[in-house]
């Protein structure tokens, strides 16, 4: 670090003196006190000549190389403008002027022309690899919160390390995605090495909601979708039911001269078709049904209300208060994939969020922001049918859901205080963030028990279900999958065979688990983060950034989380500061920490062997009966205990990047970035009381020798993982014309690790051989493309394309190979092709029962197929009513950072639905997966599964949050949308 500071000092010392000139710096904010990036500031001098620049991501702007005299300052941003021009007299030296923009009237029109000055082009937050979506460009994204989250993660790319991208809502972490009606703009990957943020900049998603307005303005919308329009899901034999009705709107306007409001309400009634795709048995004949598919209607209801107030307390003091209430109710949540209808849950959730932001302007060069958020989430889950649960691995999950009747109540608090200072060429920003989380959880999970069937080596049976004998009269052994093992259990049980005889013939459950104890538990956690950073304009074409962040939390003994951040932005060939640079070179380095989640603390305290007990019985012979807990507390069963390693520390990533940005003709910018990430102390788990090597024999119960002298598995959460990632990222942003606004990227990504999170256990608890391999984020190639295209007759097209190469998946033997109660052991690469039970796959001849010394398949050795998802929205706006003074906005007039040229502030930011008329009706059709391509979801890696190497759900069939909302019934989905604005 001393070398870095010395480097900065030397650069400052050798900076040339440019003689007697004046410079003007400042910060641009809106009525709520929030900084306004991308605002256009025009400075008109005594001679009438004008210079124009744009504010950076932190709202700062600057002009340098000015002569002394009287100047006029004008500033504007989409929907925002100065109420009147500001006059200022400049003297030689540095002067500051902070500007506050107000929401403009719909009839107002502001035109600004000019070019971006190098001081802003080299600002830390002006990186061309960032993507800022507003107005028309937002229409390329889905209206559904589940699909919107998927789209945003696709745009962010696999650049955020092993834990995915972080989403911030109005500067706050956590919370829920707002409806698209509430979103003002979305910023992705901006200012990646800022010390203000705890998460990686590459992959950071920032969402900002709309403020109030000083004239009444409103929007109403209705969306409708029906299975009649959609294509059949490729993983179901029949078309799934689907009916979508979404309606809502927003209203904004003034309450008095100093206070405005924004109110949004959304209601969704969605009957989604769940796709069950697995392998089951005919209950009458016990014949294997493969594939077994079923569609099932799941009613989903959601209501969201979100009011916001913005008030000017004084000339220097602004206050913004936002409240959000959301409730969701879903019947039969969780049904689909391998989960049969009987495993459904009735989920009901309520969430509330209160956000308060206060901005105080101490002086022209000092601004303080204080923010507070309270977020409350309450979820109840009720199993539709009672347990026990039956898991036939890779085939189906039946019986009742193991959750029973669960309750979860979490209260999160977040307090931020940030200060921005301008001192000559330096822009300082420093602050503190405090977070607290309190969780009350009632979870009788698995109190009813679960039987697990896995398959394995067993006698081959003839058509009469009798063992096939070899020439020596011995049974011929073959590998049977999980559904066959389950079939033999039922078949021979009905025939009156004893449990020992059933198991000898390849039947019998592989494992039984059951929990007992106190279901309710309360845990809490605090964390703190403080930072300071300086963006130093060492020269008009050179900005040096240096920052430092420190983080700490409770529930771990780690207090060493220091995170330095440095950055550089240089525009070669633009030394005078009077012309816009064509090229910018950026470099940066930073350390980023991940916090140890509260859910991990909850698991460790719940399953400590005292609060709750997790019993595991290997090869149980009492199926389908449920034994009493008293009978398991002795030697009959093992009790799993979960612990947090006393040496655990926060995992961190060291990321460095080098980028080249080029301004092309046609308002097009291209950025090429090379990023390298090295992660240490990544989280993983390990059974530290697994049977010692060579002592476990599946055929000889009780043969194990345990290092802790008891048979109880101890799952230790530890931070001993490694993660390495290299990426080459190419981005382009283009405002080709007022009618065409496009963005896109190509990313080459190579990520290697020996863990994919706390759920990762080494296949062999006493060997890490083969664990270091492709990470779950190792998607080698990714292409994204989107934008807004306005054509003749007022039609607007919003394409959005995501194309990925295949993701890796782990191949497992589907058996407890090492006696640690886990089914994550990987098969061996067969050395003897004549060994019984081998499985022929595209990855070679695999041995699900590897012999000692046999080479084991590496982790994440499988690779799934690629994904091509092309979505399209087509819309047309009909305008009527009296014409508004000033006309309407040019289509796509303000799409992203870096755009220059005239723009119109009538209507929503860059929203071409604002035609200049008082009323506008926009009718659109949103089409997801236009090509109707079958994009497989996660690939099943259990070689004992009949679905090995295949998917049983489409790509993106996940659910939003803990509630279970989904709209994944059909492969190609069409949605009719109507939007009325006034």
Q: What kind of sheet is the major sheet? A: 22 strands, antiparallel, barrel
Mean pLDDT: 85
From the N-terminal CA to the C-terminal CA, the straight-line distance is 56 Å
The low-confidence runs, each spanning 5 or more residues with pLDDT under 50, are: 1-19, 105-119, 885-914
CA radius of gyration is 31 Å
Q: What is the overall number of helices?
A: 7
Give the helix proportion (percent range): under 10%
Fold blueprint:
Layout: H1 2-14, E1 22-29, E2 40-44, E3 50-54, E4 60-66, E5 69-77, E6 80-81, E7 86-90, E8 93-96, E9 99-100, E10 102-103, H2 118-121, E11 131-133, H3 145-156, E12 166-169, E13 172-173, E14 183-188, E15 204-209, E16 217-226, E17 243-254, E18 259-281, E19 288-312, E20 317-333, E21 345-363, E22 366-383, E23 389-392, E24 396-399, E25 405-423, E26 426-442, E27 450-453, E28 456-459, E29 477-480, H4 482-494, H5 499-504, E30 511-517, E31 520-539, E32 542-553, E33 561-570, E34 583-593, H6 598-606, E35 612-618, H7 629-632, E36 638-644, E37 652-664, E38 668-687, E39 714-737, E40 740-753, E41 773-774, E42 781-790, E43 795-804, E44 808-809, E45 828-829, E46 839-841, E47 844-847, E48 862-863, E49 867-883, E50 917-928, E51 973-981
Parallel strand pairs: 1-8, 1-9, 12-15, 23-27, 36-39
Antiparallel strand pairs: 1-4, 2-3, 2-5, 5-6, 5-7, 6-10, 11-14, 12-13, 14-15, 16-17, 16-51, 17-18, 18-19, 19-20, 20-21, 21-22, 22-25, 23-24, 25-26, 26-31, 27-30, 28-29, 30-35, 31-32, 32-33, 33-34, 34-37, 35-36, 37-38, 38-39, 39-40, 40-41, 40-42, 42-43, 43-49, 44-48, 45-47, 46-47, 49-50, 50-51
